Amino acid sequence: MRIYQEADYEAMSRRAANIIAAEVIRRPDCVLGLATGSTPVGAYKQLIEGNRRGDYSFREVRSVNLDEYKGLAPTHDQSYRYFMQTNLFDHIDIKPENTHVPDGLAADPEAECANYDELVRSLGYADLQLLGLGRNGHIGFNEPCDCFVKPTHVVDLTQSTIDANARFFATADDVPRQALTMGIGCIMAARRVLLIVSGEDKADAVYNAFCGPITPQCPASILQLHNDVIVVGDKAALSKLAAAGVSVCE
Ligand code: F6R
After folding, report:
1. Distance, CA 165 to ligand 1 centroid (Å)?
2. Which of 52, 66, 195, 202 gives the lowest tally of CB atoms within 10 Å of its CB?
3. How far is CA 22 from CA 62, 83, 144, 214, in A?
C-alpha cells in the first residue's frame, strides 16, 4: 500500500486526478470504478480540465459506479447518476452508453443487483477503483455489519450515513433509507484501488481502516488484504496514521 499525504483538499484532488489520468493514458479503454460524494468533486474537476486541454480522452473508457440510492430517479438532483452527469460525464468525451450506475428505480432491486454484478464481471472488473471513505468506515455503501457482503446488494443505510448525507438534502427525512451498492467482491476484484480522503472528521476512519483489525465493523479494513491500494489524503485525514508512525509519501 502506498499512502500519499497532501497538504490540503486541492493537492489531494490533483494527485488523485493524476493517478486516474495516468491509468486512462496507459490503457485508453480501461474500466474506471467511480465514486460520488463530496470528496471526488475536486479530482473530477481536474479530469475535466485535462480532457478539455486534450491531454487525454475518455472516448474508449468504460465506467462503473459504486452505488445509487434506492428510489431516486436518475433525474433526481441527489441521485448518484445525476451527480455523475453534472460533475463529470456531461463535461468529458466519455460515451454515455459506456457509463454505468445501478438503477435506483429498478422494479426488482435484487435482480438489478445481480445484473450489475454480472455487468462488472463481464467488463473484467475495474482497472482502477476510486473510493471515498465514510466516517463509519464504509466503502461504497458497504456499511459496518457482521460480515463482509461480497455481491452487489440492497443495503439499509446506517444512521451515521443518513446523518452524514443529510447535508445534501432539504431535511434528514428526505435521505433515502436504502441503497444499491457494489459489494466487497467487485471492489476487491479491482486491479488497483485508489482511496481518497479529506478532513479531520475522517481521521478515525482512516486509522481504523489501515491500522486496526480487518473486520466488517470497519468495511474499509478489507483493503489491507488488497495488493495494490493507493491512499491519497490530506494532512487532517491522515493525522492519526502519522501519529501512529505509519510512513507516508509526501
Ligand atoms: C459514494 C460512496 C461513499 C462515499 C463516502 C464518503 O459513491 O460510495 O462511500 O465515498 O460516503 O462521502 P463524502 O466524500 O461525501 O465524504
Report:
1. 9
2. 52
3. 15, 23, 32, 30
Q: Calculate how far, in angstroms, residue 84's C-alpha sits from the geometric centre of ligand 1.
A: 13
Residue that has been written with the C-alpha cell 456499511 in this structure: 143
Q: How far is it, in rounded angstroms, from Cα 218 to Cα 222? A: 8
- Whether ligand 1 lies within 6 angstroms of the CB of 138 is answered as yes
Which cell numbers in the block locate residue 148?
A: 463482509
Q: State the pTM of this model.
A: 0.98
pLDDT band at 250 (very low <50, low <70, confident <90, very high): confident
100, 102, 88: which is closest to 126 by C-alpha?
100
Evaluate: CB of 67 within 6 angstroms of ligand 1. yes
> Could you give the residue numbers annotated as active site?
67, 136, 138, 143
Checking if the pLDDT of 61 tops 90, the result is yes
Answer yes or no: is the C-beta of 39 below 6 A from any ligand 1 atom.
yes
Q: Kindly give the residue spans of alpha helices, DSSP state H, lying in the chain.
A: 9-26, 41-53, 80-87, 109-122, 159-165, 184-189, 203-211, 235-243
Question: What is the number of the ligand 1 atom nearest to the C-alpha of 40?
Answer: 14
